[in-house]
Amino acid sequence: MALEGDGIPLLSAGFDDDDVHQLAAAKLQVFSQRYTRNRRLVVGALLHCGPSTIAEILNHDHALAQSSTYRSLVVLEEAGVVHRIVTTDDHARFELTEEITGHHHHHLVCRGCGAITDVSLPSDVERQLDQALAEAARRHRFTTDHHRVDLVGLCENCVDR
């Protein structure tokens, strides 16, 4: 595992669960936060379930309490371990950040049921998208860190209803 400039490990494409947990612990340490048992359980749930609501995280691991899961997600989000995906329903989804997983992707967000599907674009399309977004940011004198693209519509189950 290579190291970033601030000593945080970078994951390669062949990461495993231990690598994810080590990186999460390192990111939390930068924010003077500990990688507690509950935070580890939340990261583990997201690692195995993908984008999840709080209810789905709690269903994945019954050792988690709802109040501590909320608190853990706030800290993990502030440290850049997870990010919130805003959907059109009342329940946000959470997933591990690209920096943690090493996997850049976008989302299909169903406005009917709130389901989220990860999608990856071909590398040439991703390069063109990066260039177009960089140009738009430059025109507005805006400095970007990264981009996220969410396509909102109806999944195949909701279209058929």
Structural description of this entry:
By secondary structure, the protein is an alpha+beta fold. It has seven helices and seven strands. The N terminus is likely disordered.
Low-pLDDT segments, ≥5 res: 1-13
Listing every helix as H and every strand as E from the N terminus to the C terminus, the arrangement reads: EEHHHHEEHEEHEH
Overall CATH class of the largest domain: Mainly Alpha
Tally of domains: 2
Helix count from the secondary structure assignment: 7
Q: Quick one: overall form?
A: globular
Structural class: alpha+beta
The portion of residues forming beta strands comes to 15-25%
Can I get a quick summary?
With 161 residues, the chain is of the alpha+beta class. 45% of the residues lie in helices and 16% in strands. It has 2 domains: 1-103, Winged helix-like DNA-binding domain superfamily/Winged helix DNA-binding domain (Arc Repressor Mutant, subunit A, Orthogonal Bundle), CATH 1.10.10; 105-161, Ferric-uptake regulator, C-terminal dimerisarion domain (Dna Ligase, domain 1, 2-Layer Sandwich).
